[in-house]
Write a structure and sequence with these properties.
homotetramer; alpha/beta; Aspartate Aminotransferase, domain 2; 2 domains; 7-stranded mixed beta sheet; 4-stranded antiparallel beta sheet
Chain lengths: 345, 345, 345, 345
């Protein structure tokens, strides 16, 4: 087994948050209606309504890709398009799931810090030939908050995107696989970062922040919820014993632990970045959450790998992700190893 | 919360088998590669190979519908067809998931005791106009073992179906959502009931027999496994922390507990059926596994419902399902209540 | 080349009606906007509105399968179902095109004379488990008028089906590949046989009655027309030089020639059937339009084939189709040959 | 009706080549098997084999979008990707038809003169993460020859692209909607421009060069032809009276008239460009075939529009397309009008 202290691959390699494991174990007793008709799911939906400060519908699923794909499927038709950043998870890491569920085309936007700019969206839509023969019809925008590169949209940026979207009649989806990390970074409320900023539907991830395959699709517009159960079922995303996901999500949102864990992961990354910078390592992407993209000389990277550190190479960088359960000592160990590796290089 | 002793709705309402919960909890420590590249999944695949007495590939998923749909997607093309019984789960209870994943048409066969007869398959294929313009091409047969009505194909029946399928160049899928119950009923080996009978790909369910959303797609022909990871990912079926499903499946198959639990559920149902028959209740479908389809006068059904018993009505019958964790006392209570209800009627 | 007098295969083997060829040739001069933005298409839509006695939208396409599939695609969603007769063209002869375009499941109904009965539709919908988990949602009914076996729904039958459909919130599609033949048989108006009977969308075929690959999708509810151009384009059904289809359809409906041709084909078939019956041949299906299903001893069938007669075998019958340009002498020749064949047998 | 002399909108607004109309009219006599089983289609396939100097399979269709989409559908799977230029017709003008038929993602490449460069394809494929989890699998490259901007790939460019494609196991599709124009421009043989350059499957268009909705899908690898009839049928692309397309394609390729017509259109455009340049008009794209992208001051554009000239605006340019039946006088008229418009401006 891997030594967790040497593991900076991703936040989905991590262990399980104690309170979520407890919630899951507690749900294991007694019988319950299957497929989400259970009391845990009902409580989860209530909890979501509380946390998001309005009545929402919420659906438990076990994969983030499934959550994104099915959420998009109620926004876009087969002859349509969905606008997203060219680096977004739905484009790069989901093997075409969004296209499979929607039939729509993903239109890729460039943008600084891996984020869509409202102005870029606007000019893309302006030249989309809406209504022209042969052009697909724009139906939705999807933002990844935070992005796969760990950058976070400000509330102003989100609102500006939503305003452009609304102007063209598009709906707004948020891929919140690391929702808590963005929330912790912005210090705003869940409502602020979603419907108050114009988000219509959210994929809320808990897995990367300590849960066991637990995500939720949350709609801020009830009309979007009507087809969701059918589309989820048709995708094989409805869980027989949904209560085991719902129990986790409910507990996840029940107090501030989710934010505390996200904050800790974010702070670990910021500390790591600061210390790496201090020893002369280039950090290529702003560190808003729990990810550090560090530029190291190739021999240093190889040296780290030989020492047993685990991480992914992303283009010219190495990506270092801090988990909710990251040990402080592991940061020390990594920084020391980087210093040695550079010195040796 | 429902009183489990009064709950005869389904085996997916049940609690979790202690050893599976333990396996899941044990997997919660340390870090592991995501998406099935972990040690638990590797051990699960080995365990499957052991249990099925040949090298197999096995893929953890969290829903039976997902397992079926993606398994079928490597057998059938969009211009093709899949033969199944008109009562099969893939036709009635999956909201079109098999069609979504395959693009193919389900061709429905009638057949005694909710089972396909080899001869019916043969004559359907004979009149399928294979190669004729405009006709879809038959690609696969899917058997539900046991069926959704609790009947079990004998090994001879399976082999006969497989022989017909092979003659026409079709592959054979088995929906084994209650695989253990069928195995316990037949008293044969997993190998006998699958590849030795001609099955090419299996959806192995553990959820209805005590697991938490844990199923596996198992291929007995490696060429079928090549596309599976891509098709799973595209369907949103790949789990970020796959180890929590794999750990359960591994443990599930590790000793005879899975069969013991299935046997117990089957025996509960057989006892229930015998005692109902003894008090004059008609049992409409042979009781091979853990389900009893009982014909009761309407007032008796209503009386049972009023007493708090939970079950589904299926056409003219009530369906009573015994779980792996069924309390013997609950059978007594139910039989007593039925007797009272009939007497009162 | 085949001798047309010996050709009873189908009405789509036939030649081209003189006036339609003229219309097509006349459209060949000058330039015109592509993709249906031309004057011929505008005139065709007007003509359809005239003929159907209300403002309609109409879209030229070149294949009946394309017309059916795209018409259904605006009625049914991917998690839905479409009810049709088990013998219908959309089920048997379109290689899954309706499923490809809609994603929906075709639910097959049995019914006398190859027609759906309103009562059968009603009881199928009653047991469709509408709203139940896992069941597909019924969205539409499709009637083939006339059926592929040449039987014709009466106006009462159509209205009864439409009433049931409406009661369950379903829309009604009519596959009118041989629309003119049914119209000639019923002697009613196009409006009576469509929207006045509750039809929402029609695939109107002209190809089998003398046109060159010319069909139209006609909507009697404008909201159904909004998505059609996009869905047609996405299916590759929009024609670059649409005017060559539109010009034919416009001319086709411009006077009573389309009905005259259909009437002639129908009468040829009725005469053929009467004369065959007179010499003792069993006619298995009521002859409403231009098709005769005749039961002949196998040696007689082989003898006819040897003599050069062309026809298809359909189950135990031979199918004899009379074309719009059927030569009366060819009926004589066929009847003589049958008489000889039987005598020789 | 539009004055053809003022119509520079596109080559699909044009009239019909006399010999093709004759071929179509001649096919209108007698009966023939439907769906492509006729003698005309057989002769068309032979003609294609002749012209392409090897045995090919060829399938008549009536739309270029349909031809492209179905051709791609035998190259790429739903979890795959197809590489093309960001300006390609399949991306911009087909409303998602390629995605609908294949399920695959179009990956857009930039490239000078609207053409893919082999090197750009190579580096895109290098960073495609082939085999990585979550990435779609590259299956095919599609080149538009000539491009939608009228530029033509040289044989060397095509071969270089094919070599890269082959290195990664990708197949090569050519969208030849204006195939004859490219052929005329290069002065090479059809074989040189296709299979000898590594093309596996071709959409051959005749509509823009004088035919009535007549295109062919041609395979240079028989294994690609197996599924085509099924996939065409499922898309509603199989024509009931296919002979009317086949007869045109056969005649189209029968002598050098197709090249003569393309040459004439190309020469008209080159003359137009030269004369516009001579009066100071900027031509923004190399004029390889029958299209001129001219940069005019806005008042001049408006003046031309007021004079009744028809053309499309494409970004900052106006696009002027010369047809196979372009009148020389119309070039004079246009150049004069431009000169006046500029002077007036």
């Amino acid at each position: 087994m891997t030594d967790p202290r040497y593991d900076f691959r991703s936040d989905n390699t991590g262990g399980v948050a104690a309170e979520l494991l407890t919630a899951l174990v507690e749900a294991a007793h007694g019988t319950a209606a299957p497929y989400g008709d259970d009391a845990w799911t009902a409580r989860m939906v209530e909890r979501c309504s509380d946390v998001f400060e309005r009545k929402v519908k919420a659906f438990p699923v076990s994969s983030g890709t499934g959550a994104n794909a099915v959420a998009l499927s109620v926004l876009a038709n087969g002859f349509g398009s969905i606008y997203c950043h060219e680096s977004s998870h739905i484009e790069i890491h989901e093997a075409g799931a969004p296209e499979f569920y929607t039939g729509a085309k993903l239109v890729l936007l460039k943008g600084h810090d891996y984020k869509i700019a409202a102005s870029a969206l606007d000019s893309a839509l302006q030249s989309a030939g809406i209504g022209e023969r042969g052009r697909v019809l724009p139906f939705a925008v999807s933002v990844t908050q935070p992005t796969d590169y760990g950058t976070v949209y400000t509330l102003e940026e989100l609102s500006a995107i939503a305003a452009v979207a609304r102007r063209y009649g598009l709906r707004l989806h948020m891929d919140g696989a690391r929702f808590a990390n963005a929330l912790a970074a912005l210090g705003c409320s869940p409502a602020d970062m979603t419907w108050r900023s114009g988000v219509d539907i959210l994929s809320l991830g808990a897995t990367k922040n300590g849960a066991i395959n637990a995500e939720a699709v949350i709609t801020f517009d009830d009309t979007l919820a009507t087809e969701l159960p059918y589309r989820m079922k048709r995708g094989g995303l409805v869980l027989s014993k949904a209560r085991f996901v719902s129990a986790q999500i409910e507990r996840y949102l029940a107090d501030d632990l989710w934010l505390a864990r996200a904050r800790r992961a974010n702070e670990s990354a910021r500390a790591l970045a600061a210390r790496l910078r201090a020893i002369g390592v280039g950090i290529d992407v702003p560190v808003h959450i729990n990810m550090v993209f560090a530029r190291l000389p190739e021999p240093a990277v190889v040296a780290l790998e030989r020492r047993g550190f685990l991480f992914y190479r992303v283009e010219r960088d190495i990506r270092l992700v801090c988990r909710h359960d990251q040990d402080v000592a592991s940061i020390d160990a990594l920084v020391d190893a980087v210093r040695d590796a550079i010195a040796a290089g």
